[in-house]
Amino acid sequence: MTLMQFDVAAMARNLATVMAVALVLGAGVPAIFALGMRATTLGRTVSADGHVETGTMSMSGRVLSTLCFGVVLVAVVLGIAFIVAGKQIMAQL
Amino acid sequence: MARARRAHHFGVTEVLIILGAVIVVALAFDFTNGFHDTANAMATSIATGALKPRTAVGLSAVLNLVGAFLSIQVALTVTKDVIKIQDPTGAPLAIDHTVLLGVVLAGLVGGVLWNLITWLLGIPSSSSHALFGGLIGATIAGLGTSAVKWEGILEKVAIPAIAAPLVAGVVAAVGTWLVYRIAAKVPDHTRSRGFRWGQIGSASLVSLAHGTNDAQKTMGVITLALIASGQWTVAQGIPWWVKVLCAVAIAAGTWSGGWRVIRTLGKGLVEIDSPQGMAAETASAAIILSSSHAGMSLSTTHVATGSILGTGVGKSGAVVRWSVAGRMVVAWLITLPAAALVGGLCELLVRLVPGLGGEAAVVVLLVAASLLILRRARRNPIHHDNVNDEWDGGLVPTARPLGGLTGPATQLAGGAPSEAKVLA
User: Fold this and answer.
1) What is the pLDDT at residue B250?
2) What sign does the CA torsion over B404, B408, B413, B419 have?
3) Residue B286 and residue A85: Cβ atoms within 8 Å?
């Protein structure tokens, strides 16, 4: 009796796709979020022990952090859209 | 190999009584599914203090409820991957419908009991594995091994179970490593505050995805039972009241907390900080969404556990309790066979006891075993107050002893086999 009646190669391909997409979104989104967090400290002075920050955010910090959080927000909205509409939306992409 | 079927034939009333039992037990399973899986989304947010415990389970419950209603895809063919009782449209195969209902009832009982046992021990085990295990065991006992799709079990259950935690672990580890590199210079309190928001957002996505995926399984099982008993047809989809009942049952289960599993995932496995929490939940959300798009059914539980382990690996100096992880893996391996054993024994009861006696005996067994487990859990309760206590080597916090700390519940999976024997 052969157990391998399903396409092992197709399954490996699927897994590789999941892994790639998940790396881009699953690791990328937190990384961009972290970048946004870091941007909020631009122009500010952080005390030696790393607890207190003084001064105001620089313009570049404002732009960069807004951009980063914006990208994260878009990713979240897309995520919800995928959950809600399931395969119907994704099939059209 | 076709086994002898039950000689007696039931009338309409008897069929309706069995159908009622199936629906009630299916909703009970849905409830355990909810409280077992709250941890997948919310354990990290509770552990880092991003959300208060009660708020976290409340949010998760609402999102599960919304998710259950939002699911557009119809899950009529929930059993088709592992057993042969449905055709590709979801219609029952030409099997005596009382036999089919008995198999579904026995299978559900196996799933519920295994979910309760693992909950008692605080182990995040897969509810889908418990359901499939119960159904497979009941099918073997009721219809023979030829009605089991072994290659389907390998492809849809066994291989994904190995792949899910590995993929999740790698993604979460990479995410955690990146986050700590990038945010290294952000002052501690700003970082914690910011990532807590990130955690809440990502955990909410996982909850919503869970509602759309898991509530559907119970909807599919109940609808199958309705079709088998002639109360519904495939073409009509899923009855609205089934949708409402299942959505409410899974949300109520989520709301009840499942604190034991939350404690193990949030405190037992890895000491979690908010950046790790966000990395873990985002990894989980990304994998659940991309895998369901690719047509793979990865268990939310396996993904979430792998993600949390991954964040421990990705942060230098983090504490990862590999012994706790090891016990979880053992529990995952025995989930399907253990649920199958209970499901199979229940199906034997259904077959051997004449009339409705078998079905009644199975339901009584379920209620008695559930009460036993609940009483056991009450001896060393985990609730929203002590869920975040320090992990001193066991599920039950020792800082505030509550009495009656003996028995398998203090040793996680260590007591699983004996407990299973007692109940079987």
Assistant:
1) 94
2) negative
3) no
Gap between the Cα atoms of B116 and B374, Å rounded:
8
Query: Structure tokens of B164?
Result: 């899910």
B261 to B36, B116, B124, B334, B395: CA distances (angstroms): 7, 11, 6, 17, 9
User: How far is it, in rounded angstroms, from Cα B41 to Cα B48?
Assistant: 13
Q: Looking at this predicted complex, what is its ipTM?
A: 0.85
In the numeric block, which tokens belong to residue B121?
Answer: 């021990």
Q: Which helix (H) or strand (E) holds B61?
A: helix B53-70
pTM (global) more than 0.95: no
**How far is Cα A14 from Cα B272, in angstroms, rounded to an integer?**
31
Give pLDDT, residue B71: 67
In 3D space, the residue among B321, B298, B318 whose CA is nearest the CA of residue B167 turns out to be B298
**Furthest C-alpha separation in chain B:** 75
| B1 pLDDT more than 50 | no
Q: What does each C-alpha distance from B248 to A90, B30, B206, B227, B317 come to in angstroms?
A: 28, 9, 18, 22, 42
Under DSSP, the state recorded for A53 is E
Mind giving me the DSSP string for B287-342? HHHHHHHTT----HHHHHHHHHHHHHHHSTT--B-HHHHHHHHHHHHHHHHHHHHH
Rounded-to-integer distance, Cα B104 and Cα B99, Å = 9
Task: State pLDDT tens for residues B151-180.
Answer: 888 888 888 888 999 999 999 999 999 999
Tokens of A54: 């003084």
Work out the average pLDDT over B137-148.
92
* Residue A25 · residue B173 · CB < 8 Å: no
B29-46 per-position pLDDT tens digit: 999 999 999 999 999 999
- B178 with A31: Cβ contact below 8 A: yes
Distance CA A36, CA A40 (A): 6
The domain ranges of chain B are 12-423
**Helical spans, DSSP H, in chain A:** 8-22, 28-39, 59-85, 87-92
* A80/B208 CB distance under 8 A: yes
Interface test with A, best of B200, B290, B298, B315 (most A CBs within 10 A): B290
A–B interface: beta-carbon pairs under 8 A: 149
